[in-house]
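Appendix B, record 7
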Amino acid sequence: MTDISTSTASAGTRGLTRHRFIRWTGFLSILAGVVMLVAGGVVWGVVSSQLADQHITVASDSEWFPGANVTDPFTALAEANIINEHALHSSEGKTYAQLDKEDPLRATVMNASFLRASLFTSVVSFGVSFFAMGVGLMFGLFGGSLVALTQRARPGTV
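Structure tokens (predicted):
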């Protein structure tokens, strides 16, 4: 036969352990969220400053952001698109792979392709950093919710 006071104490200990686990999970989620927000922001800043250091300006005949300095994903994408238009125009619509190996335009189209790839890499980097910041924000909110819930609940009832 089990003593009632022993089973009640055991349930209270389990509740307290669960309460602490949830609370610590909340704190760790907040910490992870802050780290992800900061890391995403740092990456965004580094990519932006590296692009700015190149002094790239969106071509004046671009559909989007003509004349703007390339420092963000939107201007990088605009410049990549206009580079493609210029390359296709100069090669009469042919891509690098479609041009004859002896065609003097092949080097120009190849350089345009490399430039576009570099700009697309920066666009992807901006996207990943934005994603990290968004996930960090959600981790922080979920962690804050867990901490807030454990503050309202009594340790023996969670």
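Remarks on this record: Residues 4-53 form the longest helix (50 residues). The mean pLDDT is 90.
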